[in-house]
Fold this protein.
Amino acid sequence: MITRRSVLGGALAAAGLPLLAPGAARAAGRTVPPAFSVAMPVPPVLRPASCADGVDFYEVSIRKATAEILPGTATDVLTYDGHFPGPVIHARSGRQVAVRQHNDIDMPVAVHLHGASVPPESDGGPMAVFTPGTSRTYTYANRQPHASLWFHDHAHHMESEHVYRGLSGTYLLTDAVERSLPLPKGRYDVPVTIRDARFDGNGQLAYTMGDRNRTTVLANGRVTPYFEVAARKYRFRLLNGSNLRIFSLSLSDGTPLTQIASDGGLLERPVAVPVLTLSPGERADVVIDFSPYPVGTRLVLKNTGTSLPEQLGQVLRFDVTHTANDSSRVPDVLRTLPAAADLPAAVVTRDLVLSMDEDGRPDPRGFINGRMYDPERVDTTVAFGTSEIWNVSNANTRAAHNFHLHLVQFRVLERGGRPVHPTEAGLKDTVRVAAGETVRLHVTFDSYRGDYVYHCHMLDHSAMGMMANFRVR
């Protein structure tokens, strides 16, 4: 019988990327550089190979490369077009994008555009892999409103390690509503992927399933870097690209972050957030105004929490190095969304329970409603054009989970029986679920028919089986 360990181990051995045994995973790692000793890069923007007939067409190579994550060390990574982290694709609502992905590594892959409404053949689901030496074209109609999306590998049993080793990138979808606002733009609109990692003694990324010792923080692929800013407003598009770690972000001087967007685009109104919490796969756009700070100020984006090792407590430092004119502003109203009471009436209420083994076994399993993922089983069938209520619960007593639903953006109605904070009141596709907690979601299935998945987006957990199929018909 093919098991998760045999599939993952075999594939990684074929690629020359061994699955580390637990003993090897605990080996002493390479010393990481002092915090704020390197500059944070901005991911490059891909240019279309052609823009004919109303379609922006891209050619992308999935390939091995090396990256200088630790100064002076070449670390083996998996990449889109050689970039770690991956590049940025800019898209517009109503204009089609097609991406031909070439698989130039030694393992099967699938590319999922996370948060996108796409037909099944372009969703990049866990079993829709394409093999080494082949290519697949994904077509994105971009019929949804603006959103800060991202793309990543989703090949089942391998998605966890592939994303950890670098297979993720940014997809920024805009529309007339967003473009009409006087928000920071151009060089002052900066994607930032935050994640954790662990390195072995040779400076290579060390991977083992469920590893809680990934205590080196990366921002755009560099260890706790600095980023030079002007004394003006910036928009930062934050993505938690970790496999397991939840970040709680705040500024070192106590000034609240101004959150303007979540997974599915702009909130209705900006929200002052003293601490911004992001679980893996979640996004938040924030505006930071550096104009009150004199040139020479150094302001740290911190990861707060109890009993955190020192290296996990600092994410990124902003260095105010010069002044600049600034005509941008954050409007009091960003967009209009239906109130919860005005959402379409739900025809079905479903209860989904996330759980995993917590007894210390070496090969833990993940479950939804007591069942591990079976690619041949359809767990949920929904009627096209209808709305439903999904109550998603975490049955574990210690482990946190989160929940990601392909195809749709949803509204979070309640957390623990109470109305959600304004930061979660917009459109979402990923939501955290603490141990013992239940979140209540309103979901409308009115875009495409076909088979998709929902799963914990702590990717180690989905690779353990915490995933299920649903069918829209």
Remarks:
- Residues 183 and 328 are 5 Å apart (CA to CA).
- The helical segments are 4-15, 22-25, 159-164, 176-179, 459-463.
- The longest strand covers residues 55-67.
